[in-house]
Amino acid sequence: MVGLGPRKPPSRKGSMADVPKDLLQTIQHLESIFTVDTSKLTEITDHFVKELEKGLTKEGGSIPMIPTWCMGFPTGDETGTFLALDMGGTNLRVCEIHLPEAKGEFEIIQSKYRMPEELKSGTAEELWGYVADCLQQFVDYHHEGKKPDALPLGFTFSYPATQDYIDHGVLQRWTKGFDIDGVEGKDVVPPFEAALKERGVPIKLSALINDTTGTLIASAYTDPRMRIGCIFGTGCNAAYMEKCGSIPKIDHMNLPADMPMAINCEWGAFDNEHVVLPRTKYDVIIDKESPRPGQQSFEKMIAGLYLGEVFRLVLVDLHSDPAAHLFEGQDITKLKKAYTMDASFLATIEEDPFENLSETADLFQNKLGLRLNKPELELCRRLAELIGTRAARLSACGVAAICKKQGWKEAHVGADGSVFNKYPHFKARGAQALREIFDWAKSQKDLIEILPAEDGSGVGAALIAALTLKRVEEGNHAGIRDPQGLLEGTGHHAKK
């Protein structure tokens, strides 16, 4: 996504003076369908609260609300050396994190390895072999000449996985372009550990985590007011800490009612029943033509993967409307290609600092071979603002819903992801939506703040590995498959 350039106010309605009447009416129509007003924000938030609660019940609901077996926040007193592995769609990142005596501090060294495309459709053996080879390379390089104790590893596995224990995970389905036979529906940990053992790599997997849970824990390590971890990027998700007594679906475990447990919401699935989200006909098309229609309704309206596609569908629709006179007499073949624009395309338009929108004109000319006149440029600018604003305001509903459900009047929320970090005005628009939902007085400061998160898939994964070992040492084995095996060779010893 583009870097941040000069800023203009989020709305430039004052420059609509030279827009012809019919195009102005088109813009007004778009404003009416993409604007989410305060009453709608409140309605969505209240429904969201109910759906979060439903997801925790035995029957469940659309939002999976997955117990992660990460139990409790770090205290800042965690010490030791831990590895973190983050397996993304493009890269594999390996980090070694040292937690010193100093509270809330950490030192990190890391390496990135490219994830070869052919692995994504190869065999499971090839995949885990490659991952183990990268880990072996990392350990050999950073511990040259001396064989370390088995290093505890936190593995960020950001694919939908069911976890009955923190040190295992059954892959529900591949995402991010992976399509490897024989992995879905199975625990990914044994074949991964077998590949490490075969190579004699001194690593012991302590925790398999989701990047959102890692974001929550890493952010709480440096900020004790942190309550929620969020990802607003290609996709969207959130995690927060729930009391075990409020999770009916794990009643059979007989855990202490006040014991905390991080919940990976997987909230992209909110409102799959289409009860409350203000979907336009363009959202309906995106859903219908996606690989999994009827799923991830919330995500399809707010995540980076879809923002450019909503924008493209509107322009194609307006071009076919004789009343709009958009791109008249021009070849829109390139515009007709699905997902030809991403969120960075909209970000570039919103960041255009020039009154004549010359950067936007260049963008359309270079990417799509289209020449836009000034009124068309104004329409595209306004449309980008509307789509970007809607995404930010809807995102705030999820944050508000968790806070309302938990009765939190004040909270810090750690957010990561390309849309949060790079999309212009996203933070400010989300903050404004929270002000409206909670009806804070104008003079009041923001009581719930969404802030940039710490490194969840690196530091967060290592901290969760540390917390898991600490739990075993203290004799709390809930949600750990092999407590004694977890400590083998790591230099840690369970308390008798």
TrEMBL record:
Keywords: ATP-binding, Glycolysis, Kinase, Nucleotide-binding, Transferase
EC number: 2.7.1.-
Residues of the Hexokinase C-terminal domain: 227-467
Residue span, Hexokinase N-terminal domain: 27-221
Gene3D superfamilies in the record: 1.10.287.1250, 3.30.420.40, 3.40.367.20
Keyword check for Nucleotide-binding: yes
Similarity section: Belongs to the hexokinase family.
UniProt protein name: Phosphotransferase
Species annotation: Phyllosticta citribraziliensis
